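User: Could you write out the 3D structure of this protein bound to guanosine-5'-triphosphate? I've included everything you need below.
Assistant: Certainly. Input first, then the structure.
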Amino acid sequence: MSFSKLFFTIFFHFLIFSTVNSIDDSDISIDPNGYLLYCPCMGRFGNQAEQFLGTLQFAKSIDRTLILPPFIEYVDYKVTFQPFENIFEIDHINEYHRVMTMNDFLKKLSPLIWKHENRSITCYDSRHFSTNNNNKKEGCNPFEGSPFKEFWHHLGVQEFPLGSLYYKPLHTDYNYANDWRQKFRNVTVLALVGAPSSFPTNSAAVKLSKYIYFTKNIMEKANKYRMDRGFGQKPYLAVHLRHGIDWIRACELIHSNPDLKQLFSSQQCLGDKDKQHRWLNNRITFDLCYPSFEQIIDGIKSSIQSYNNQDEVKRNEKQPIQHIYIATDLNNESMWLDLNQTLAKHFSSSSSTLTLITPTLTLNTIDGTFSEYKKPSPHFLIDLYLLSHSNSFIGNCISSFSAFITRYRLYRLHFFHTTHFFSFHRPNSVHLRDEL
Ligand SMILES: Nc1nc2c(ncn2[C@@H]2O[C@H](COP(=O)(O)OP(=O)(O)OP(=O)(O)O)[C@@H](O)[C@H]2O)c(=O)[nH]1
Ligand SMILES: [Mg+2]
């Protein structure tokens, strides 16, 4: 073949290949059952992640493609957005139900099926914000309040010309699926002002955690951080300590409501109405929310002992845990020094030493020495990943951030025996294991 012939053959192939590719990209089919779009406008990551599961279950029950919203994050009190697909893999979620990224929807579908003039907004009933009766505007008022306004503006939506649709008296619950299908059969893109899921969500939705996979990007960042902090390849206990001032204030609710049966994500420990949860009558105690220093020490001691007492560890087939990773909403260095000192006393008879890895200090129990880690504290997603994948974990029964980790460990990784909570012992009689 002459050079010019070869050149044209290659050029031709390139032309065909690139054309096919571009056809593939733009050839996006439209779901005849329509789409579900919503603002994850309630709470921070833990709440949004839990309501995502309820919403996914709901989207399947009404048989619409779910458009994946970004996660809303508050950085220095400013609303910011993290595309869903930057955090979690969408292919695995697609195994359960049809989903698409917000980006794809806005770029490829919105110009076809969600043009400006076709947009309506849906809510349960009129939402009023103004305290002044004369200013009360009927409707979903989707731009009222934060992060509502920022969310729709982020999508490039300034207006819903078709106005508000109400779903009252229905509920955003899969048991009402048929009514939803009927009622909104003519609405191609059902845009909801908030997540169509309760919080906390139902126990069937909790199990959808098995479709949650972190992206390679998050995994690599977390593993790099782990190497940087000197415990790459080492087994570790990860603890989630919530003790910031806002958290303590939230825990105070328990003192003022002694009969409280549910608070935030307490169902991860105390169960819901599910028959399997026979410890339902357990009351919420302050210690579950805000464990004392002694309870933190007890939790760490018993988790390490139960891991290191395994036969495989004793036979040297598995390394013992010698690293404790502390993820927290408040980096309290004096507390880390106290923890290190107290753990040193408790573990003085064992031959091994412990290393505590906190956001800014790495401490050693053998001689109380510590070094400073001068780089920025980890982003909460790094903490989330490292807590989720730790060899042993201790969480907070009330925290929805902990609840993400608990669900992920139980339903995705099947880490039952190494998932613990501060100040709480799951009764042995109740084992979720059978259903995993
Ligand atoms: N980096 C980091 N941030 C955390 C940790 N725990 C909590 N946070 C931050 O605090 C937020 C907690 O909010 P949620 O995710 O809703 O969890 P929650 O436990 O229900 O807390 P509240 O919203 O305060 O009720 C997270 O989104 C993080 O920004 C942690 O261990 N590490
Ligand atoms: Mg929360």
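The chain has two domains: 35-206, 214-435.
User: Perfect, thank you.
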